[in-house]
Amino acid sequence: MNRDPFDQLRDRNPVPERELPSAPMAQAERIMETDRRTRGFHRPGWAYGIAAAVVALVAGGAWMLWIGSDDQAPVAASSTDGTEADAQLSAASGTTAMQARTVVAYFLVDQEPRQSLIPASRTAMGTSDAEAAVASLLHGPTREEGEGEPRLITAMPPDATVVVGAVEGGVAAVDLSPWFTSGADGAADALAQLVFTLTRVADVTGVAFTVEGEPHVVVAGTLALVPRTERDSHPHVDDPATRQTFEAALSPAMIEDPPYGDVLVLPGTVTGVANSVGNRVGFAVTDAGGNVLWSTDAPAACGTTWSECRGDGDWSTWAVEVPVIVDTAQAGYLVASAYGSGVAVIGERRQPVILQPSAGVTTVPSTPEPPTATEVAVYLFVEDDGTQVAPGPYLVPAMRTTAVLSAPTTDIVRATVEFLLAGPTPGESGASPAVSSAIPEGTELLGLEVDGGIAAIDLSVEFVSGGGSLSMSGRLAQVVFTLTQFDEIDGVRFLIDGVPTTVFGGEGVLVDDPATGSEFEGLLPAVFIQYPPYGGVASSPAVVRGTANVFEGTVSLALADAEGLVLWEGFATASCGTGCRGGFEIHIPYEIETAQMGSITAWEASAQDGRPTNVRRHPVWLAPTDGSAVTTATACSGAEATSEAARDPSLPAEVASTRSRLWEAAALCDWDTLAGAVDGDLSYSFGESGDPIGYWIGLEVAGARPMLALAEMLAAPHATMDAGDGRMIYVWPSAASYPSWDAVPEAAREALRPLYGDDAFEDFAAFGAYAGYRVGIADTGEWLFFVAGD
Amino acid sequence: MTRSRPATYVTPTEDRFRALFARHYPAVYGYAARRVGASDAEDVAGEVFTIAWRRLRSVPDGDESLLWLYGVARRVVANSERARRRRERLDALVARAGVPVVPAADAGGSVLSALDDLSEADKEILCLAAWEGLGPGEMGAVVGCSANAAAVRLHRARRRLAEALEGDTP
């Protein structure tokens, strides 16, 4: 045991090199073949970065699959160098951005009285819902579903190829591989799955089949797929095929919504179709053990979405309001039964469900209501980072939240302009590339009125002082873009010291009256991320929106976590490209476990060599995927404090009183009490001035946990210092009173443990002294400082 | 709107993939087996090579291709771990058992249990060095940092491993 642990580790290699298997080459062939099939086209390296998306997506409990649209799939088999055709990825008309879509795929389940269709919900990538739904269908049931109770299966053979084309007039065009016409077992079931899956997509009512390009029709009754040219030799064919064609694949009692294993928010509605005598269905909700929580006998209305009522005993639709209320989410089952004559059950559908309490019914939160925050953007400038084709600086929207205001605001537009005039935060101006404002310091807002879509803004004369014509049009653009983000504002009228103004500065910068954003498009970067703003908040799927003027309208995007690991990489297509500015929007799903400051990067791949150019990168606060906390606005980090501020007899009564008051206020994020303890002279941050409470709330929102720091530090041992003016200052933690880190005794270091670990200690050692949070209270009980850093 | 699949494929690309697969499958399998165990290692390796096939053009040539594959494998393992944990949570929910998942106990004081006490980042850097036998520059390429940073991280991780081992030994 005395050997170096690293050498021990080396010897404990669980799979040493000599035990490695040789490469199973058949698997290499399978990978290439499977990939061709599931993606409906056949080339590797199809779109740069897609695989990164796959990596990020496969982990989802609801798995995701990426499939290319036929319109975009480059098919150039004659080329041999493997580099062809990526340029063909430009958008075809009518396609929308590749994004995550919630769709439903129909699988099969073996339940009395026959194997029948069952819906299962999916989140899948695709350029249309139809495409995403079919991709989900081809992928088959998930492992959980395949091993679940009841077990889901699919009739789709592993080597089937299904290519989804356009939807026109409610009919989806689908091209199939020849297996579907081979008379194979399950071909009719597979077609039924396909038709139900596609007709679940909004506005799709039928499916027109081709097999390797040749039009085919479905023979009613036998459900065989035959060439359209042979239709006359069959008594009746369905062209296009509809749900009615495949009615026989349904269970007499089927639950359509919620799909298999999905969430039912209670109280809520369950819907389905049935073929039940007397137009009644039995319905029950059970817990995971099968104990009935609630049941009813519900009426069914004759007729369905695919056919009018054709007489007594026909297919019917039913809906049940489930009044059950649960305290917490739990697993259960939904059971629907169809009746024959009398009360004999002729068919039963039983499927798992997650029963979830609705937000309104859940327990009351124990913490006080946080101030509701509104997030707005202010437009600032970011320096050219060297990747831009045209020289910068460029406009960039930066996130501001009203959560930092200690009093709620009723005039969000005015508050936003005040944020704008305040300029960049220290973090933004210190960022690389730096964020700055062209609006001169000292500019004051004298008046702001919004009427008839026009904002009339009155600014003090400082606004027009200094700067060249670029700076002048820049500051005008900042005001115009910031104000026109609000729906009620289309244009801006400028007043300087009460005088309506359209010509600015000695350079004579002219603006329209009212001024609009289109005048300042030259100040936008080639790839402009409008949302999320710089420093904004995103939750999965992250919505990224902006405008771009790039080659063929193709905007490359990447989402990275705090470490810079790429979580997602792909591209969006702007509505206009190559010389014209178009909008783009994409929804990027991601999965992370803890909230963190990640980044969204958008760029143009150079038309010459594919290198990234015109790169825009926004730091973005990423909310965790699994937690319900979409934003951190409700957080009170002080509640996590583990150390109590124990009574300390060495403290004067005034100091002890202030200390315990502050500790309690920090642990509760009791902003009112803290505000009462704040004196005008409190130092609370380097470089900030104004409203300490708002500053701390802002840090809490941003996840920096200042209240935890305040509570933990006050619970640590203290030291005393001479203020130099006859007062004594009591300082927490004691480590802050030592001139160097080396001089800090072990006990004082250990007292920092709730907040700081070994890594921080190394930083302190490198810095030479304790550089963390510290709190100071004067012997008079006056709160002097709460700052981070030395 | 519909289009059938052409019958011929791009063979040089496929040959490159076959060569990559033949050369590096054992190492990628080993990487996966050391982290997720032999039963899931094939799945992870298969997934890594599926990604490699789709991104073949971004796979670097030569020795760097293995580092690229390790980097992908690292993310695949991380994601499969997350999926596994979620599945366990769901299973617990369905069973309404509420039984916490206890990690398999290792013999106390062994270097492997000490390794388990470390952060994921420390663990990874130690394993890359000890089991895959990578140097600082190579580790940097896998985890996405400079050679220098990788060397520093390894140094710190080794120290923490020693501390954890001492802490474990009764």
Could you walk me through the main structural features you see in this protein, from its secondary elements to its overall organization?
- The complex is a heterodimer of chains A (790) and B (170).
- By secondary structure, chain A is of the alpha+beta class.
- Chain A is 19% helix and 31% strand.
- In chain A, the strands form nine sheets. Chain A has an eight-stranded mixed beta sheet, with no helix packed on it. In chain A, strands 4, 5, 6, 7, 8 and 9 form a six-stranded mixed beta sheet that branches.
- In chain A, a hairpin with a 4-residue loop joins β37 and β38 (783-788).
- In chain A, α4 packs antiparallel against α6.
- Residues 37-95, 360-371 and 627-634 of chain A have low confidence and may be disordered.
- With 170 residues, chain B is mainly α.
- Chain B is 72% helix and 0% strand.
- Chain B is built from seven helices and no strands.
- Chain B has helices spanning 11-36, 38-54, 64-95, 111-116, 120-130, 136-143, 147-168.
- Chain B is globular.
- Chain B starts with 10 loop residues before the first helix and ends with a helix.
- In chain B, 38% of the residues are buried.
- Chains A and B meet through α1, α2, α3, β4 and β5 of A and α1, α2, α3, α4 and α5 of B.
In short:
The complex is a heterodimer of chains A (790) and B (170). By secondary structure, chain A is an alpha+beta fold.
Strand-pairing-aware structural class of chain A:
alpha+beta
Backbone structural class of chain B: mainly alpha
Largest interface: A-B, 82 and 73 residues
Strand content of chain A: 25-35%
| Assembly category | heterodimer
Mean of the pLDDT scores of chain B? 76
The total count of helices of chain B amounts to 7
Count of beta strands of chain B: 0
Question: How would a textbook summarize the main sheet of chain A?
Answer: 8 strands, mixed
Number of helices of chain A: 15
Percent in helix of chain B: over 70%
* Outline type of chain B: globular
The residue fraction in helices of chain A comes out at 10-25%
How far is the N terminus from the C terminus of chain A? 43 Å
Main sheet specs of chain B? none
> Please, what is the average pLDDT of chain A?
78
What would you report as the Rg of chain B, rounded to the nearest angstrom? 20 Å
Order of helices and strands of chain B: HHHHHHH
